[in-house]
Amino acid sequence: MRPLILALCLSILAAPALADWRYCLARGPHRTVYVSAPFSSLETLDRLGTAFAQELDRERHAHDPVQCPRAEEAASLRAMRHSALRFNREEGETIVELDWLPERDARTAGTRP
Fold first, then answer.
1. Nearest 5 degrees, angle CA 44-CA 78-CA 61?
2. Distance (Å, rounded) from C-alpha 58 to C-alpha 69?
3. pTM for this one?
């Protein structure tokens, strides 16, 4: 019985994790909303939020706390993002779409001044 339980535990640990689909956004001054493109990531919400906030700081964009909504499927996330952008535009917010992805940010973090 124990070898079976051990084998089951090892197979669970060896299975690839499913990535979440996310995008990040943060409000800025003067009715501005900064938003990323959709992306798939295994990173934690805290790390993603911190990375997006650091990108905004590097670009000298004042901002409120970052949010990174998630979905299990790309299509669902794109629909959520589209609805959020439409709502903010209808409320008179200026949407600033940033060319930011967490993977690209991690690769270039050491090369920035």
1. 60
2. 22
3. 0.76
